[in-house]
Amino acid sequence: MELKENCGEECSMGIGGDQAASAELQEAEESVYNLNKSFSSSHFTRDASPVALSQECDGSKMDHQYGPKGIWKLKFVGGDSVNSVYRQQHRRRLWKRRLLVGIGLAVVFFFMMNWRMLSFLEEVVFHQKSAASGLISEVTPPSRLILRGLDHLMVDRKPRGILHPRLLALAAHALADRSSKTEPPELWKELPNPDTLWMPCADKPLKETQVSEGNNGYILVRANGGISQQRIAICNAVAVASLLNATLVIPKFLYSSVWTDPSQFGDIYQEDFFMDILGNDIRIVKELPLELESLDLESVGSLVTDSEIMKESKPRFFLETIVPILKKNKVVLFVGFGNRLAFDPIPFRLQRLRCKCNFHALKFVRKIQETGSLLIQRMRNHRALSRPLEQNLLGPFAPEFIPHSRGGHHKYLALHLRFEIDMAAYSLCSFGGGKEEETELETYRLLHFPALAELKNSNRVPSAANLRSEGLCPLTPEEAVLMLVALGFNRKTSLYVAGANVYGGRSRMAALSSLFPNLVTKESLLSPFEIQPFLNFSSQLAALDFIACAAADSFAMTDSGSQFSSLVSGYRMYYGSGVLPTIRPNKRRLAAVFSRASNIEWRLFERSTKKAMKQMKRTVERPLARSIYRHPRCVECMCKNRNIA
Predict the structure, then answer these.
(1) Which of 331, 272, 281, 269 is nearest to 301 (CA)?
(2) How far is residue 445 from each of residues 416, 422, 453, 456, measured CA to CA in Å?
(3) Range with the lowest mean pLDDT among 86-90, 429-433, 556-560?
(4) Taking the CA of residue 642 as centre, how many other CA atoms within 13 Å lie in the half-sphere pointing to its CB?
(5) Do the beta carbons of residue 514 and residue 147 sit within 8 Å?
(6) Largest Cα–Cα distance of the chain, in whole Å?
(7) Half-sphere exposure of 201 (CA within 13 A, CB side)
(8) What's the distance, CA 442 to chain centroid?
(9) Which pTM does this prediction carry?
(10) In whole angstroms, how far apart are CA 389 and each of 107, 498, 570, 620, 635?
């Protein structure tokens, strides 16, 4: 509805009589009344600078205001009551509009922050605060998070899909809620049998010691794999040499295309110490006699590979098959020798000898001990706690013995993150990377595990989904951090991460480094000068991780089948005096929990995770046929004293 322009012109020029003026005035009033009604039922307003035109119709003055698009705004001069009501309604509408906009912005901000948390800021800094001596006195993350010091954990690959983003967001909120709370004390305590205390005693001589003189010939070993497989092969070779009354030549290590490390025995372990400790049990030499060095071992039938020895063979096999070769050629070469000696049934003295080798005879060389000591000191902020474990690991570089004072040292958690590409490929599992990941892992299998690749292509193996539901897949870094948060560790926890070349790169590590900002590695704790001698030697770097993990106040693994984690947990069990807990995931139970990640509530996830982990955390005596390196609590390795507090 609009006001006719000629009304203003006629009124201002005095054209028309009183009757016409009165009629047109009535029409103008009706127009204004109707406009007022329309203003009250709609948002009809403009706040631009208008052009005002004044007209007088029969003594009544009106202001006609035009907005930028010609929309009328009219008011009666003298009609203050109408304008006052209109202004109040306008203010209320404006206030409601601003309130809605504010609420909308708050909601958008909330979701943006959650999205930001799920992206986990791809960069985290690991800052080293150096004292005058050059040692790091404290590990403090600065305000800007940069992924520095984790470069060795990264494989230069495209970002992968993050698993369980909803649970990760809930974990972030849980950490924020518990920021002022202390961690549950059971995270830092083992749960042993309260009536039994096991003590190390594998180095104690037996009453009836049977010394092997090594008269039947020489045993050579070319151990394969990384430091864990090599260590097990060494100790099994010691037991077999004693069983066969043979002389053991210091083992050598095969070069692996996976580990790419040329290190030999003397680069990692002290050869003379090894020979001295075991000298009363078997005869050990560093090299073959000259008359045997020139033998073509393969042509004379003295070369024995893993394909010729069944895994975990009984002693009878070696007595019946290997002894005749020894007596004939005076030498046997075992190539590989991975897990080729059974754990049961084995004579008591051979089990004792295996334990003596693993827990007493294999001492790291001085440069590894010295650098490992730096790692422990810096993790504890130079308040190192000296125990039999540190003394055995570090030798002369262990701190002076200080009686354990409660709360007198800085605690830290060590996590072995076993998620390298070889593990991912070998597991036959999928990890959220889609078709590209599947192709990449299949290519790796064809190159490094051709038999496994052929088996997979034959469709004779379970699907990736079935493998995961059965707990046969390694935990991803995202699942590892969810496990730690659910167990009760808080954001302030000092976390040492062991491992190298995490498959998936930065996107895989983002969750862990964001939720646990006090995360460090050997690369971030050590200066470039200190770590330089170990670069390009994966087994020596793994030895440093072994020391840091073994000495940790609490140790968590992501794959209970990992030999490295098994050796570390066994070492802690042997020397820990019942106070060094190890967290072992029950991957089958956790898989069932993670399968509900899209809708499970956080408190239920916490309860389910704790229930799945409680049984695995309890330490028991070695079950039959289980590894003596992982479960040394048995009479062959340790001595048992009852009713000792």
Answers:
(1) 331
(2) 23, 8, 6, 10
(3) 86-90
(4) 0
(5) no
(6) 144
(7) 14
(8) 24
(9) 0.76
(10) 53, 19, 12, 20, 20
